[in-house]
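Hi C.,

You asked whether I'd gotten around to modeling the 863-residue construct. I have! Everything is below, sequence then structure, no commentary in between.
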Amino acid sequence: MNRQIASLALLFCVGCVYSGDTSLGPCNAATDCTRPDGGALLGATCNGGHCAYACGHVCDPAESCNGTDCVLVGPKITSVTAPLTWSLPSQSVTVTAVVDDTPATGTSPGIASATLRIVGKLDIAGTTTDTGLIRTYTFSVPGSVQANNSESPVNFTVVATDAKGGVTPEGAAPTGQLLIDGIGPKVNGVTVNGGVAVASPTNPNRVIRWFARSQPGNIHAIVNIQDNGSGVDTASLTLMAPVDPVTLALLPGASRIDTAGATMCVRATAQSYSCDFTIAPAATPIGAGAQGEVNFKVAGNDAILNNVQDNVATLGIDDKKPTITFTPNYPPANADCNADANLFCGHDGNHLRRVGDGKYTLKFAVSDSAVAGDLGSGPNPSTATCSINGVPTCTVTYDASSGNFSFPADMSSATFASGVDGTGPVTVKIDAKDFVGNAATQVSVDVNVTRVKWVRKIPIAATVGAPVLTPQSGQVIVAGTVGSGDSIYSVKAVDGAIAWSAGASLSPPISVVTTNMALDTTPSTDANHPTPILYVNSARFVYSLNFSATRVEKYCTGAASASNIAGSPIVFGGGASADVVVAGGNTIAAFTTPLDVNGGPCLAHGSTSFTNAGTAQPVLGPPSANGNTIFFGYDNSADTTNDLGIKSVQFAAGSFSAPNSRNLGRQPTAGTNPAAITPAADLFFGVNNDHTFYRHAANLTPVSWSPLPLSGSQNIFSQPLVSGDLMFAMSNTLTAFRLSDASTAWVYSTALTQVSPPAIATTTFFVSNQQNQEMVAVNASDRAQRWAYRGTTATSPSTRMSSIGTEATLGSDGILYFGDSVGHLYALFVDDTPLATAAGDWPRTGYDNCNSNHSNNAGFVCQ
């Protein structure tokens, strides 16, 4: 029996098997006997180990065996034809099937109907115009049988019914598939190549590629797209923007952003493509000078015009400069100071200190969003830079947690010009870029800087002498005159706090200090001479004070004579072997220091008196020393007319010897008072009545060196200083005389009331003057003024200088300390450090920062 087989129908068995045919296979029971197609072989028996079948051949699926013959159960479906092309769900699909009800034997009741069945759907009745036992039925299948949003083939079967109700058996019902495409192509991914990948500020897990609108070249978006139905129509694909990222719908005004004709699609599999879209940055909705995210989608369709499924991808276009916000953040008021009502701190809440503030940072912000929703690529931390005028390196640090940028507030080498209050601007410039390279407009801000570390008001009527520095213990010690209370104060250099004070509680008390104090910091473990010792002359006594960080621990007192001591103490030796030498009346005396917590007398180590016919003459002037020789002026005119001059005496091993004297008819003076000789390589001194400076050898003989006298209106106010090849004279000018020929090297300023001795730094002279009541920094090279400081009454307490009070002392850290006549102690950052003292120099009135009043002093340590 022949059967037609359609391309989409099931195959029917066509093999004929006769009774006893061994091809049915061996058996043990009838159930072992099956049809060649595997179906049950009804009516089969197992005879002699082989299957036997009553009918003359194996019946086909639509037939059954009645014992001897194959008879039809229901009509056979000999072929089914369905379209091989895709259709839309909105269309109907036509399927045809051939139904054959021709029996193998006997007669047929005839075909009654044919039905197309889809699981879960209503049966679809076929129609035919044919008659007879073989008919062709047509089925009109609505596309709605396809599931929503599906393009999977729809399986169906076709069965027929004869006039007696016989139905095509299930095993004989052919199946087929309907190609109905109910969904468009699916975008599996969009990869934007190039640009800069930046995490979204609102969602760190979302990374967007950002591009400069003006960048050269195009953007490439790689789209993976597939369609398991009718297939992608690659020619229809475009990129459209803008898209609502929530609804995925195109927004009004949406347009194509990819370049027409430039898209290249490569088939990845039978159903998918990889397409390269080219996008010109200027073709996106982001205009010139603007920035923002571009949400775009792939548009197009499949072969039967189903639109590409909703999708969205994002890239960023940034054509807008970021903005920099920089408002200097200063240390809070009184930071790094021990604040009280008598201390003004350079950290006043509105200034940075000139030195030492590198531990603080200046902060700035960079924003790439002008208003809410105005998103850009964001500030690029690695491109933010700072520059401080005059500073070689400025390094920016970014704090991701706060989003702030910062850099050290180190103004120590910045170009800085201060006003008379010590403050001035330093120009700081900030630059930044966003991630795509748009540069922000540079911000240039003047940062307020001050030279003032602190100013301490001390309850002393007038500070005198140069401050004594003790870097070893971090103290600055000053003294002066008081009506009551302490006359000596130690101030902590680090923060301006009072470390300790002394004077009133000593025995006898000190109420007046008129000259430099001297300090011995030479290390000592001797309990009678511990480190350090401060020597103070007051009235007819010298005081030796051992102090700690908080108080005077021990002291002793010595008297040279019944007369008041002249000038400053001289420290001989150092530490355990130190002596302090003072002059009073006509006596030079040396003392050592058996100290006690309750005071007591210092040990007189030796003394010598210069007498004339049993009188208390001559009167000795302030002493100073070089090596083992002490030099001083004298006045014996009360006994002998015009017997005034200079003397010297040797001091060694606790005793005095080899006195020498030269009557000059004049005594070293400053103003109306006797003044100390400056024992540099030679002896230098001024005589105020002569308005002239003199130079003698160590043996007191004159040296051929004759500077022109100062004018008659110029008074000499202090002993001269010597540094290098110059001698400095202080009057109403600062005049430098060449040591080589006594000629005037230069004169700084004129017509001033009084000029103080200069603090000599590497490149600078620091000089105060009475007329302008200011401290001035002067270039050593050309005497040009760098800056002047007067202080101001606008601070609390007032920092306004009242007058020249003390010679300035310059620390090795570049801080200048000095006082004025109303008890101010100033600490200023001055941009220079002390000039190294060479042999033959006498660079300060007290020679060194310990005011030891002694050059070439073996074993002495000033630290």
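If it helps when you're writing up: The chain has a mean pLDDT of 92.

Thanks,
B.
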